[in-house]
Amino acid sequence: MPQKIRMYSTQWCADCRTAKRFLQDHDIPYEEIDIDKDERSAQKVIHWSGGRRVIPTFEIYCGESTANPVILHNPRMQALAQALRVQP
Predict the structure, then answer these.
(1) What is the mean pLDDT of each run of 10 residues along the chain (88 residues)?
(2) What are the chain's domains?
(3) Whole-prediction pTM
(4) Which residues, 6 or more positions from 4, have their beta carbon under 8 angstroms from its beta carbon?
(5) What is the per-residue pLDDT across 21-40, written as a single tens digit (0 to 9) for each?
(6) CA torsion sign, 66 to 73 to 32 to 62?
(7) Residue 12: CB partners within 8 Å, gap ≥ 6?
(8) Dihedral of the CA atoms 51, 66, 20, 39 (nearest 10)?
(9) In terms of Cα–Cα distance, which of 50, 49, 72 is closest to 59?
C-alpha cells in the first residue's frame, strides 16, 4: 500500500465525495486539500493536468522515494483501487 496519499478536491465535487467514500470504506488514510481554499495546490493540479482544473486529483507516493509520485486525475474507482493495491 502507498505510504502517502494526497487528494486534491473541492467541497462541491460529487466525484470527490465518491472517492472519499471509497478511501474511507477501505480504511486508507489520506490528506485532503481543497483547491478552492489553496491556490498553490490548485496551480499544481492545473500543471499536472496540462492546463485544466481536474478533480479529484490524487498524488500517490509508493515505496521510499518521494521523487516520482503517481498522479491520477478523476480516476474510475477500479483504477484508483489498482493504484492503491486494494480490491475495488
Answers:
(1) 87 96 95 97 96 96 77 94 86
(2) 4-84 (3.40.30.10)
(3) 0.90
(4) 31, 60, 61, 66
(5) 999 999 999 999 999 999 99
(6) negative
(7) none
(8) -40
(9) 72
